[in-house]
Each structure stands twice: as C-alpha cells, then as structure tokens.
C-alpha cells in the first residue's frame, strides 16, 4: 500500500468468526492490515475526561481497534478534521502518516489496541501541533 497523507482515516473490517462459545477476530500482516506489524500496544484504565494521542507520525502507520468499550478518535491533516467513534472489536481505523490524532471520550472499561507498522522511535513523533503544521508546510 502506498503511503499518502490525503486521507483522514479508513475503517477496516476485520474477519469476525461467530461461535456460540465466543466470537473471534483476526488481523494478519499484509491481509487485513496493509503493512507488516512491528509493534502492538494497548491503553486501558483511561481516567474519565482524559485523552490519549495528541501527536502525529512521520513514517509509522497504525490500525487502532476498540477491543472493549468505545472511544472517539479525531484525525487532522492540517486542513480538515474528521472524528470516528470506535466501538466494535471487529473494526479498525487505519491512520496514515502525517495525520494528527487525538483519542478521547473513553467509556468505562475501554481498551484501545494499536497495531503499528514500526518499532517505537521517538524521532518519528511530532508532539507539538504547531510543529506539526510547520512540518506539513515544509513537505
């Protein structure tokens, strides 16, 4: 998949295997997930009124999944913003590079799972919004 900063996210439907014993969803490299997964992390126990994210990545793409509960993700490409409410464990939001993201409105007991293309690299992060806008202008 070619990288592009023109899109403000894409919902990806993940396979849902329905079973009376409990459902199962899978996400595989280069199948449902359009990149090789190098890192997986999750956030949980987010206090009411708090937010996560508040940054952009220069290179790392991510797929974000609400594996439990719900939360809202607002994406911003410097020209427009779009918000998504994630609340289905069989759907993920593909977030491309050069997109500012903020996650908030976490329900009680929510778990946010992130499948990341790259290993952690602090140099890949833009953590200040003004720096993000300046970075986009230089591209």
From TrEMBL:
<feature type="domain" description="Sugar 3,4-ketoisomerase QdtA cupin">
    <location>
        <begin position="10"/>
        <end position="136"/>
    </location>
</feature>
<protein>
    <recommendedName>
        <fullName>Sugar 3,4-ketoisomerase QdtA cupin domain-containing protein</fullName>
    </recommendedName>
</protein>
<dbReference type="InterPro" id="IPR008894">
    <property type="entry name" value="QdtA_cupin_dom"/>
</dbReference>
<dbReference type="InterPro" id="IPR014710">
    <property type="entry name" value="RmlC-like_jellyroll"/>
</dbReference>
<dbReference type="Pfam" id="PF05523">
    <property type="entry name" value="FdtA"/>
</dbReference>
<dbReference type="InterPro" id="IPR011051">
    <property type="entry name" value="RmlC_Cupin_sf"/>
</dbReference>
């Amino acid at each position: 998949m070619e990288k592009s900063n023109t899109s403000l996210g894409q919902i990806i439907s993940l396979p849902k295997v329905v079973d009376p014993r409990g459902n199962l969803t899978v996400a595989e490299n280069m199948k449902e997930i359009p990149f090789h997964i190098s890192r997986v992390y999750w956030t949980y126990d987010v206090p009411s009124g708090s937010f996560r994210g508040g940054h952009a990545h220069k290179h790392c793409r991510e797929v974000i999944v609400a594996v439990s509960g719900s939360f809202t993700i607002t994406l911003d490409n410097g020209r427009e913003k779009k918000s998504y409410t994630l609340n289905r464990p069989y759907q993920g939001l593909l977030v491309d590079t050069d997109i500012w993201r903020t996650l908030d409105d976490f329900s009680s007991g929510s778990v946010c799972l992130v499948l990341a293309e790259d290993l952690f690299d602090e140099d890949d992060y833009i953590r200040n919004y003004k720096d993000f806008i300046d970075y986009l202008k230089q591209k």
